[in-house]
Amino acid sequence: AQSVAQPEDQVNVAEGNPLTVKCTYSVSGNPYLFWYVQYPNRGLQFLLKYITGDNLVKGSYGFEAEFNKSQTSFHLKKPSALVSDSALYFCAVSALSGSARQLTFGSGTQLTVLP
Amino acid sequence: GAGVSQSPRYKVAKRGQDVALRCDPISGHVSLFWYQQALGQGPEFLTYFQNEAQLDKSGLPSDRFFAERPEGSVSTLKIQRTQQEDSAVYLCASSPRTSGGLGNEQFFGPGTRLTVL
């Protein structure tokens, strides 16, 4: 079975400061890792993914994530946070499971960027 | 271009009523997924379609839940005899290829918020 843990329910950061949202995973075989963002009353929006190759993945809106196989982590980062980054962030993992290619999500981290 | 759309956006049902939730995926997308998102939680997988074939329904919580995609495009999630624990946001997602999750991002709709009284 695959699983994702997001240890922080809430992350607060001042505007202009770097931000990190943590994610660890458990999966059999090679993981496919994703970050999604959810704004109020809107669906999840794709930010970035890791499939293979370079451990540092760059995505939308200046976000990046670092894949660390030994620590089974995939933390989301941004060098300089914006107030508009405030939202709910979900880490997800997928692996072949039967005939489905389902995503398994973490419980989410609410990011608040303070002006 | 149009994204994934879902209707209705909000649904209030009395306990015991049947409900039907609709998903219009992005045109041409082969894979379609339904997820259930309880308050304060991440989405949880319900079922997966590849075109019109329902290849995985292992996440459906009970036999009161039924999903179909008869022509390989629009999908309907039906819940019979709704219970209060069915209250959640139901998310639909589509992906252009058959390996919807394996390396390919899923495109999500805005969800239908179901409240069962």
Write the layout of secondary structure elements.
The complex is a heterodimer of chains A (115) and B (117).
Chain A: E1 3-5, E2 10-14, E3 19-21, E4 24-26, E5 32-38, E6 44-50, E7 56-58, E8 64-68, E9 73-78, E10 87-94, E11 103-105, E12 109-114
Parallel strand pairs in A: 2-12
Antiparallel strand pairs in A: 1-4, 3-9, 5-6, 5-10, 7-8, 8-9, 10-11, 10-12
Chain B: E1 5-7, E2 10-13, E3 19-24, E4 31-37, E5 44-50, E6 53-56, E7 65-68, E8 75-79, E9 88-95, E10 107-108, E11 112-116
Parallel strand pairs in B: 2-11
Antiparallel strand pairs in B: 1-3, 3-8, 4-5, 4-9, 5-6, 7-8, 9-10, 9-11
Counting DSSP E segments of at least 2 residues, the number of strands of chain A comes to: 12
Low-confidence stretches of chain B: none
Question: What structural class do you assign from the helix and strand content of chain A?
Answer: mainly beta
Radius of gyration of chain B: 13 Å
Query: What's the rounded overall pLDDT mean of chain A?
Result: 91
Class of chain A, according to the CATH hierarchy?
Mainly Beta
Series of secondary-structure elements of chain A, N-terminal to C-terminal: EEEEEEEEEEEE
CATH top level class name of chain B: Mainly Beta
Largest interface, counted with CB-CB under 8 A? Answer: A-B, 29 and 34 residues
Radius of gyration of chain A: 14 Å
Shape of chain B: globular
Helix content of chain B: under 10%
Summarize the structure.
Helix content of chain A is about 0%, strand content about 50%. Chain A is mainly beta and about 120 residues long.
Structure description:
The complex is a heterodimer of chains A (115) and B (117). The radius of gyration of chain A is 14 Å and the shape is globular. Chain A is an all-beta fold. The mean pLDDT of chain A is 91. Helix content of chain A is 0%, strand content 51%. Chain A has one domain (3-114): Immunoglobulins (Immunoglobulin-like, Sandwich). Chain B is mainly β and 117 residues long. Chain B has strands at residues 5-7, 10-13, 19-24, 31-37, 44-50, 53-56, 65-68, 75-79, 88-95, 107-108, 112-116. Chain B is globular, with a radius of gyration of 13 Å. Chain B starts with a strand and ends with a strand. Chains A and B meet through β5, β6, β10 and β11 of A and β4, β5, β9 and β10 of B.
